[in-house]
Known about the structure:
This protein is an alpha/beta fold. The protein is built from six helices and five strands. The chain has one domain (2-110): 3-Layer(aba) Sandwich (Rossmann fold). The longest helix has 14 residues, at 85-98.
Amino acid sequence: MKIYCDENIESAIVEGLRRREIEVISVQNREDLGKSDEYHLECASKLGAVILTHDADLLKIAHRWNQKGKKHRGILYAHPQDLSFGECIRLVELVTQVLSEEEMENHIEFL
């Protein structure tokens, strides 16, 4: 499972996921900083990646997409005040081990 880290995800989390050999696409590496949340959800979907975010607005956008029948590859939502970097990394790793790409489609997983 590919993970697309939006611009709100700290570089320490991105690097921690890569050390665990998880395929990570980072907005910072793609030079897509400042793009809209909708853009990032579309980009992640086109790349076949689940998006990892701290941004609750993305959840609203995904809900609107679902109402319109538009699909996304899934969202992992990590509230920035509820998880340490290490906890976030471990939970993302766990999701990649127990949920399939098909199970993540149009699904939001709260970490």
